[in-house]
């Protein structure tokens, strides 16, 4: 049985990953650490795991790996400590809020010879995996352009704090799409232009919408909207959509359209009942496999670094009003 600890339940994805660990049948949540003691104790109780308030004691315990789901700014310090302790690491996205910190995480894990994965569960959504296979098989010919969205609800809390989050919706929702496009097209980004702002009245001064225009190797043009524009009453947290314009045709995928519309007169609102796969479980299962086999996770730290580069360039573009060359 692979023994995995979770470092912080600050990010809501921690709860999905914790639940997924129990579903693998091959791993157990062996310990919880959180610098917010009340939050950590509540999560540990919810998932029937021991809680440890001291990070050094947590990392000295009998753990094979850790999942880092803290506030974004704390990823580097936690990852460096975990790597020094010899633990395999799955780190929530964005890998870091700066390119320097993301590169430092990658280097720390390389030096310690431990596996490092970035939490990009969208790679494990079957509609996206099918599209990737079709593109690789040449069904759409050369890809000329892509139009993408990652719109969601404002998570609140520390996500609205620049010192902890590093940025707003552009930071939160660009990395997923940047990673998917690199994965699907096997190309790197070369140019980034971004305009963003605070347009939806969210309770934060950070950007709640970003409009990005990007270029990839081979001249592929990409437009992307990253936002916190979804209302509190929206049936789910948001979306991930991609449209490819190709030599032989057009492809459109909605990653979370494996659902049934449910209308409940008692609740007086619509809801979605999902019938498809669980990307969190796919991500966690692959990480567990990598720990067991002592190999690098399939979604690597370098993948996280590359997505961070695009996101940081977006903010540099917004500040300068210029296109940033990567």
Basic shape:
globular
Percent strand equals: 25-35%
Radius of gyration, Cα only, in angstroms?
19 Å
CATH superfamily of the largest domain: Dihydrodipicolinate Reductase, domain 2
Order of the strands making up the biggest sheet: 12-11-7-10-9-8-15
Runs in which pLDDT lies below 50 for 5 or more consecutive residues are none
Number of helices: 10
The SS-based structural class is alpha/beta
Count of strand segments: 15
Element string (H = helix, E = strand)? EHEHEHEHEHEHEHHEEEEEEEHHE
Query: What count of structural domains?
Result: 2
Annotated CATH architecture of the largest domain: 2-Layer Sandwich
Summarize the structure.
The chain has 326 residues and is α/β, with parallel strands linked by helices. Helix content is 37%, strand content 27%.
Provide a descriptive summary of the structure in words:
It is a single chain. With 326 residues, the protein is an alpha/beta fold. It has two domains: 119 residues, NAD(P)-binding Rossmann-like Domain (Rossmann fold), CATH 3.40.50.720; 174 residues, Dihydrodipicolinate Reductase, domain 2 (2-Layer Sandwich). 37% of the residues lie in helices and 27% in strands. It has ten helices and 15 strands. The strands form three sheets. It has a seven-stranded mixed sheet with strand order 12-11-7-10-9-8-15. Strands 3-2-1-4-5-6 form a six-stranded parallel sheet, sandwiched between helices. Strands 13-14 form a two-stranded antiparallel sheet. A hairpin with a 4-residue loop joins strand 13 and strand 14. The model has no long low-confidence stretch (mean pLDDT 96).
């Amino acid at each position: 049985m692979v023994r995995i600890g979770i470092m912080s339940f600050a990010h809501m994805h921690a709860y999905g990953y914790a639940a997924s660990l129990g579903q693998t049948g091959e791993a157990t949540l062996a310990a919880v650490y959180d610098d917010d003691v009340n939050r950590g104790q509540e999560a540990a109780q919810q998932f029937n795991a021991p809680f440890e308030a001291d990070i050094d004691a947590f990392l000295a315990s009998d753990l094979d790996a850790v999942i880092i789901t803290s506030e974004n700014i704390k990823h580097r310090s936690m990852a460096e400590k975990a790597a020094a302790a010899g633990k395999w690491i799955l780190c929530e996205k964005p890998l870091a809020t700066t390119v320097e910190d993301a590169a430092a995480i990658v280097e720390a894990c390389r030096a310690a010879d431990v596996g490092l994965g970035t939490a990009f569960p969208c790679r494990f959504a079957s509609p996206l995996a099918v599209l990737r296979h079709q593109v690789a098989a040449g069904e759409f010919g050369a890809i000329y352009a892509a139009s993408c969205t990652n719109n969601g609800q404002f998570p609140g809390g520390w996500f609205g704090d620049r010192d902890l989050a590093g940025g707003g919706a552009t930071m939160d929702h660009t990395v997923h799409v940047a990673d998917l496009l690199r994965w699907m097209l096997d190309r790197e980004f070369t140019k980034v232009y971004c305009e963003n702002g605070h347009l939806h009245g969210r309770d934060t001064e950070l950007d709640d919408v970003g409009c990005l225009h990007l270029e990839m190797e081979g001249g592929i043009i990409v437009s992307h909207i990253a936002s916190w524009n979804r209302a509190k009453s929206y049936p789910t947290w948001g979306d991930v959509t991609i449209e490819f314009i190709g030599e032989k045709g057009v492809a459109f995928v909605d990653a979370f359209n494996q659902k049934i519309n449910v209308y409940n007169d008692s609740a007086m609102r619509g809801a979605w009942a999902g019938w498809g796969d669980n990307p969190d479980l796919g991500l966690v299962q692959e990480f567990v496999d990598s720990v067991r086999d002592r190999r690098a996770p399939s979604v690597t730290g370098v993948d996280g670094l590359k997505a961070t580069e695009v996101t940081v360039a977006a903010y540099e573009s917004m500040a300068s009003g210029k296109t940033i060359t990567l």
